[in-house]
Amino acid sequence: MKQIFVFFILFQILNCEIQGSNCSPSIQEHAMDSPYSDVEKLLQKTLPDSVAAVILDIYTGEILAVHQSKTALHRSFPIGSLIKPLTACAGLIRGSLDPNDLIYCYRSGYSDFNRCWYLNGHGRVDLTDAIAYSCNSYFRHAAQKLRFSEFSRFMENLGYSMPRTFTPEDEIDLMIGLNPSLKMTPLQILTYLSLFYNDGVLFDWTCEGVPFKKISMPDKIRDLIRRGMAASFRYGSGSGLQNATHQDSLFVKTGTAPYRLGGVEDHTKTHAWTVVFYPGDTPRIGIVIFVTQGVGSKQGIYWAGQTLRILEGRIW
Ligand SMILES: [Zn+2]
Fold it and tell me: What are the pLDDT digits (tens) for 68-81?
């Protein structure tokens, strides 16, 4: 296995050197005879055109199956709450976020500036609950304690540069996922969230710099993020996937993002996201589902469920 991985990395390095800076085709799609070819065919048959999906081998960077590849691999969209595990990670690494912090998410109205997306309030939440529920109140607390310059530096280390400067209010919103300027391709955010599951191997799909690098992260911090994403499946925003899989446990993060397409914002619509790491406690593959037009994150969960059914051979 190790040899295959080393070969893959060497291939990537050579590929980059040969193709120079114009090497976006370095995205490694599966071979025609891959066992996942059938999965990809079923994705094409089952998922509508408004849904993009990628199934990624998180250790080798091979794209095992893709649906709507132009959207999934090459187009950037606001990522919404998918930023929250990275915001938490940055805060934990910098020491601004204490994993023992407890925050009370109060009931609120639409006009409340600091409201959570869940107007009834999540009550008392810790970091695990906050990731599981995607609680805005907790993450506003986390973002207020983290300097934006430190968050930016953390993201830059992953290869993501902030698109511009922001007002202090927008900086907080951006770290919570409420600002549509924070855009990524579905493959890109899947790659970033894979860091919590693949020993910190970061693939560089633009291939403008080195093809991959290792992101070091204390095991304790990695485990805290994983715990939140496991709780999302057990009782949080990802629990809708329980009836879509034979797995007893999965790592899930959902996201709802402000709708922005072709530079146009529309407050009546949202983008819906779901990221899943599969299978069970020792994931090997990452799945990202992006729904161009959704309502909340429900459509993301629905199509992630259909994708899991395909993987488990229950849609043919
Ligand atoms: Zn909340």
Answer: 999 999 999 999 99
